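Lab channel / #folding
Pinned by the channel admin:
"Please post every new chain as: sequence first, then the structure tokens as a reply. Keep commentary short and put observations after the output so the thread stays searchable."

First post following the new format, from NK:
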Amino acid sequence: MKPLLQVEDLTKVYKVGSIETPALRGVSLEIHPGEFAALAGPSGSGKSTLLHLMGGLDKPSSGQVWLGGGRIDNLNKAQLADLRLWNLGFVFQAYNLIPVLNALENAAFVLELRGVSRAEREGKALQALEALGMREFAARRPNQLSGGQQQRVAVARALAAQPKIILADEPTANLDSRTGLALIDHMRQLNREQGATFLFSTHDPRLLERVDRIVRLEDGQIAA
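Reply from TO:
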């Protein structure tokens, strides 16, 4: 099976004045369709940096990033924005929901940006919310939802657009144990039933117990 997402000899060096701080040191990795995988490691190991480079949110210092057989690290900002809109789903620990939109509108937002008709985008958004147990909260705005409910809406937004892969950066970091486990189980179910591909950046043992593959990073390199 061909990889869905692939990085080759990836490095990232952050520069502040004359000081250089390496975040990634020659990382190569493949993620295949249908995987439920995680990047793990201590703070500063490079897992979030790697996830952001894979999603085209940042540029590597060297190396290559491939998505669906096409190289993406050499694209310009407009091309990357278009690529993310049509191919990638993102879930961040800060949720990044739009305060003035309700849960349904937030879940449908990516589809609206794509120009999908209101009826179709709301139908897909409702379906994603229902899969995450959030249909009854569709009319509520983010400030009327708990942290766990907001994170489920963020996942629904990613799922409704049916991207090639969903990249989730510490998705359970701000959730209590019960809420975090419920979210993990929902995402695992969507992976199994719909074949959704997930790649997480996490140090949460609850999530690491449920993924199929763990890629451990240490000091910007793959350790195991």
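NK: The beta strands are 5-16, 19-31, 36-40, 62-67, 70-71, 88-92, 165-169, 198-201, 213-218, 221-222.
TO: also worth noting, The longest strand covers residues 19-31.
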